[in-house]
Specification:
globular; five-stranded mixed β-barrel; Ribonucleotide Reductase Protein R1, domain 1; single chain; Rossmann fold; two-stranded antiparallel ribbon; alpha/beta; 3 domains; OB fold (Dihydrolipoamide Acetyltransferase, E2P)
Length: 294
């Protein structure tokens, strides 16, 4: 048996990078029976077929340190939440959903503010919003290649996924990092200000300076599965850092009197934008019935 990493999955085939090269594999039928499927990023054990040394079967999935449903990827070290300042203007609520996704999975979020060349003032405003989180924040421009050295330093020797609205420039940034990628990039509609998905399957790409990055169709949902409204505050680090206790035990930090989190927001320790995202996500999670939590 060989051990390797699944670097691409398409049409029921899994391409596993091993010491013997890239092996095209099918998954054993027992995975479907067990309700588990291999994911790109999985470390697996495979068996080579006797007929062809470049084909085999996935026999075992080794323990994952994390996994995501949409897209189905595993073993991420960090999630780079990519925000464009313009064309399209990114949804900060979506960005905050994605930081919650990462936090809930035990993955380090990084904030990348792209297309800063289009509106430097707005880029600085977004940077200020996320500086209170404690996350690493970088400003980039795929067009004029600003900030790419900083992005490379963050990606080096790690397994990273980029996430964000369609059209924010994820593929363009990846193309700037390696001449060998040549990923398709999409245009942004002038009418809807929405980008077009250009990635049709998930692939783990090797970076020339060390590390890997996922090219995926995009993170389409956040990890509401498995967490409750009461737990949400644990995934906002600036809220979690508030040391002064609220007036009431079990404070939801919504409209209660004597709320230390609201006081921290008024004191500038938590930005209004992040607090509004917390409130919106709390209300969303509050609608999930206890028996619906996975």
């Amino acid at each position: 048996m060989l051990t390797g990493t699944i670097v691409k999955g398409i049409g029921g085939f899994y391409y596993v990078k091993t010491a013997e090269g890239l092996i095209e594999c099918r998954a054993r039928g027992r995975f479907r029976k067990d309700g588990a499927s291999p994911m790109v990023g999985d470390v697996v054990r495979i068996t080579i077929t006797t007929e062809d040394a470049k084909k085999g079967s996935v026999d075992e999935i080794l323990p994952r340190k994390n996994a995501f449903i949409r897209p189905p990827v595993a073993n991420i070290d960090q999630l780079v939440v990519t925000i464009s300042v313009k064309n399209p203007e990114s949804s900060l609520l979506l960005a905050d959903q994605l930081t919650v996704t990462a936090e809930a999975a035990g993955v380090l979020p990084v904030i990348c503010i792209n297309k800063q060349d289009l509106d430097e003032k707005r880029a600085a405003e977004i940077q200020k919003i996320y500086e209170t989180t404690g996350y690493t924040v970088i400003l980039t421009s795929a067009k004029d290649e600003t900030g790419l050295d900083g992005l490379k330093a963050i990606l080096k020797d790690k397994i990273t996924a980029l996430a964000g609205n369609s059209g924010v420039g994820k593929s363009s940034l990846l193309n700037r990092l390696s001449e060998g990628f040549s990923l398709e990039t999409g245009t942004v509609s002038n009418k809807t200000q929405r980008g077009r998905h250009t990635t049709r399957h998930t692939e783990l790409l090797e970076l020339p300076f060390g590390g890997y990055v996922f090219d995926t169709p995009g993170f389409s949902s956040y990890a509401a599965e498995g967490i409750t409204a009461a737990e949400l505050q644990n995934f906002f680090p600036e809220i979690k850092r508030v040391e002064e206790p609220c007036r009431f035990v079990g404070c939801a930090h919504m409209a209660e009197p004597g709320c230390a989190v609201k006081e921290a927001m008024e004191a500038g320790k938590i930005t209004p934008e992040r607090y509004e995202s917390y409130q919106a996500l709390y209300q969303e999670l509050k609608q999930i019935k206890p028996w619906e939590i996975k």
